[in-house]
């Protein structure tokens, strides 16, 4: 299993300035490359796992995909810790950059001010990122590079 993105070296080199210089299309490409790294950014249906999906954007331009196999609609954030949130993709990338680049952590009040979010939204996003990282580290012990085998 691949290392969680938030723990990877790529996440640590993502700068806030770099994120805010991205166009919407570039942010979408970066998010796709991160989300579907195993398929070089090609969408994978979260329902059936099929690689046969096509772009069927919403009228407002929001990226959506439809699986040819099971006909399910999904987005880049479907099935991730960012699903059911309404931030633009650059907002998620900015949250990742801020979260990963802070040495001693980031207060939720400061994050909410940096991203123009409510305190509650900043709190939820950061706790979801922590939860995702904790899930990745579950079963590991200090000094162990590999998780314990599950019974």
Structure, described:
It is a single chain. The protein has 151 residues and is mainly α. The chain has one domain (5-137). Helix content is 42%, strand content 5%. The protein has helices at residues 9-13, 16-21, 24-35, 89-101, 108-115, 119-137; strands at residues 53-55, 65-67, 73-74. The longest helix has 19 residues, at 119-137. It starts with 8 loop residues before the first helix and ends in a 14-residue tail after the last helix. The model has no long low-confidence stretch (mean pLDDT 82).
Question: What's the arrangement of secondary structure elements?
Answer:
Blueprint: H1 9-13, H2 16-21, H3 24-35, E1 53-55, E2 65-67, E3 73-74, H4 89-101, H5 108-115, H6 119-137
Antiparallel strand pairs: 1-2, 2-3
Average residue pLDDT: 82
Number of helices: 6
- Tell me the strand percentage band: 5-15%
Topology as a string of helices (H) and strands (E)? HHHEEEHHH
Task: Report the count of strand segments.
Answer: 3
Q: For the report, how would you describe the main beta sheet?
A: 3 strands, antiparallel
As a whole number of angstroms, the C-alpha radius of gyration is: 16 Å
Oligomeric composition of the shown chains: single chain
Cα(first) to Cα(last) distance is: 17 Å
Strand order of the largest sheet: 1-2-3
Class from helix and strand fractions: mainly alpha
List the uncertain runs: none
Percent in helix: 40-55%
Shape: globular
* Domain module count: 1
